[in-house]
């Protein structure tokens, strides 16, 4: 996906009705020794980092339970859509654990430090509407009979992104992701570097021409 230039947006959804991702299999984890657990969690963290580093926008369609590592997977995505009936939580402390695949870092960056601490300290599960009110998800939608309401909304979001200039979208994502980690002056420099990479693109020229000619642009990702 990282190197496929035809890919414009990636949507993460589950094939299991009522569950987005329920996190690690604790029965499997119980059979591991301390060293194996450490390696398992490190690999999981690396996977989430790889998802977060995908150059194109990513959307998590949360149509059911997103618990522990399941919510960490959703947090690694750029956008999140949840059914109002979905259940989310970093529940690790209820099992004698703490989030280990990015949850302690991505949740506070998403909803703020105080709320993130409350959810992690308590291991509380929240529904889609509560998640929306906290800013954890971008949209919440009533669940439908098929059980894929969040996925359908995610597709609608993806279809809004698809017509836009692919390189500009990628550079925008890169500028946000890099800039949020540094002071604003450094962030402005990052934005400038990303903008400079977009200037010579054919898509930028097409965007200007389409505006001048009063027609929809036809972006090709070049």
From TrEMBL:
- Gene Ontology annotations of biological process type: fatty acid beta-oxidation
GO molecular function terms attached to this record: enoyl-CoA hydratase activity
Naming one, the record's GO cellular component terms include:
mitochondrion
Q: Which InterPro entries match?
A: ClpP/crotonase-like_dom_sf, Enoyl-CoA_hyd/isom_CS, Enoyl-CoA_hydra/iso, Enoyl-CoA_hydra_C
Pfam families to which the protein is assigned, alphabetical? ECH_1
Keywords, comma-separated and alphabetical:
Lyase
Q: Which family does it belong to?
A: Belongs to the enoyl-CoA hydratase/isomerase family.
> What is the name of this protein?
ECHD2 protein
* Species annotation: Nothocercus julius
What is the name of the gene encoding this protein? Echdc2
